[in-house]
Input
Amino acid sequence: MKNYQTYAVLICVTETEEQAVERMFDWKSFYISGDEQEYKEAFIKRGDRKLRVICARQDEMGMTASATLTMKMIHHFVPEYVIMPGIAAGTGKIKDSDKQEYGDVVLASSVWNFSNGKFVSPNEAEITFGEIGFNPRPTSVEIMGDYFNRINEFIESDKNEFFVHSGPLASGTAVVANKSVLKKQVITSFEDTEGVEMEGYGVAYAATHATEPKPHIIIAKSVCDFADERKDDRYQRFAAYTSCGFVKELLEKVLEYSGE
Output
């Protein structure tokens, strides 16, 4: 069995997320022969060790692109941690909760695909949208392990300066800006879902099905809107900033590296 060769790889999607990731460390760009993807490398000092971190941005949104890039980065760099920071919609408002605010971090304890299912006629459907019926068949990837326990201990400690909500994260094939979709298709399936986005499931699925040594998964995205009709871009930069700030804390103070 191969040992881990890289501390962590970070995957982002949008230009806003990429800009926030670039502020985390002093990155240097590079390419690998036969691969058109641009990668960036940085080193984190932990005690007497310099730990390598790689980041890259998807060339398009969605789970297919995230799974593909995740698999490539696992193959190239053999990381101990695959991390996706970034932005997501929060579900706090749809659950009539005042506990979620813009910039709060959603740490995925599991990631599930709410787009899986079958479109049927309304009289055969579990969920209906006018003349459209949908029978959901969600699939889920659990995120667990000692490293996740350490993260939760950090969240509960007085060293953590971020507001973090740990729970299921929902991934879908389209942007959601409709309260009815959020309520009928997401909350009814997993009531404790904390956020909604489009890429996390692809990352988690790829990492879970990678060859040994399998990387650990961290998906920590901050709330930039609430997936309703008021959805806009005003808080995206702030959310990307808090997400990357939280991930930086994990990399510099919390996570352990077992590689050489």
